[in-house]
Amino acid sequence: MRLPSMSQPFLLAPIAECPPGPPGAQVRLAVLGARGVGKSAVIVRFLTKRFIGDYEPNTGNLYSRLVHLDGDHVAVQIQDTPGCIQVQEDCVQVLDSLSRCVKWAEGFLLVYSITDYSSYQSIQPLHQHIRKVHPDARTPIIIVGNKADLLHARQVQAKEGLQLANELGSLFLEISTSEDSQGVCDVFQYLCKEVSKLQHAGSTDRRRSSIIPRPKSPNMQDLKRRFKQALSSKVK
Ligand SMILES: Nc1nc2c(ncn2[C@@H]2O[C@H](COP(=O)(O)OP(=O)(O)OP(=O)(O)O)[C@@H](O)[C@H]2O)c(=O)[nH]1
Ligand SMILES: [Mg+2]
User: Fold this and answer.
1) pLDDT-above-70 percentage for the chain
2) First to last CA, the chain
3) Among 23, 101, 114, 180, which residue's Cβ finds the most Cβ atoms within 10 Å?
C-alpha cells in the first residue's frame, strides 16, 4: 500500500511553501538520510503507529500533529526529506531544499540503514552541515541505525554507529521501524523534549537580558578613575 499524498490529516505543504510560524509556537523537526533508509517509514510509524511497508519516494513532505509531552500538548512539525544528499552538481536543486530544511528545523533525526554502509557514511557530512547552520551544541541531533531487524544483511556494526555518534557528540540508537514502534516514538519524544527545553531556555535568557542593567561603558569608568586620580593628586 502506498502512503496517500495529501489525504492524511497530518500532512501539510512541502517546506518551500510552508510559512515558518512564530518561534516557540511549535517544535520543528527534520528527518535526513540517504535514499531508502526508512525516513518516511519512521515518520509514518511515529504519527500513525503503523508500518505500511511501501512509501512513495518523497519530494519533501511536511507532517504536523499535536503530541502529548509531559502533560502538555505540543504542536510538532516533521519535515521528511528526499534521499538525494550527495554533493554533486546535478543535485543542486535537492541540496537547496535540504539546506532550507536544515535552517528551518530545530531538532534532527539522522537515519542510516544498518544494511547499507554508504548510508552510514553519509551521516558525518550531514551532521557537519547541520552543525555549521546550528553551531549551538544544544541543538539536538539523534543518529539512528534503522532496519535493525535485518540482521542477516547487516553491513554496519552497532559499535560503528555508537563510535560515530560519540565522535559527533550525538545520541545513537539502533531501531527497527518495521518491528518496534516504541523505539521510534522514544526518539521523537526525546527530540520534542529537547527542542522545547531549548525554546524555554531561549525565552528565559531573553527575559533575563532585558532586566539585567547594561554594564557601564568602560570609557565612563575610565574617565571616573582618571577624575578621582586627578582629584586626589590635587588634594595632596
Ligand atoms: N525490514 C525493514 N524494512 C524497512 C524498515 N524501515 C523501512 N523499511 C523499508 O525500506 C524501504 C524504504 O523505506 P522508505 O521509508 O521509503 O525510505 P526513505 O528513506 O523515505 O526513502 P526515499 O524517500 O526514497 O529516500 C521500504 O520498502 C520500507 O518498507 C525497517 O525497519 N525494517
Ligand atoms: Mg521517503
Assistant:
1) 69
2) 95
3) 114
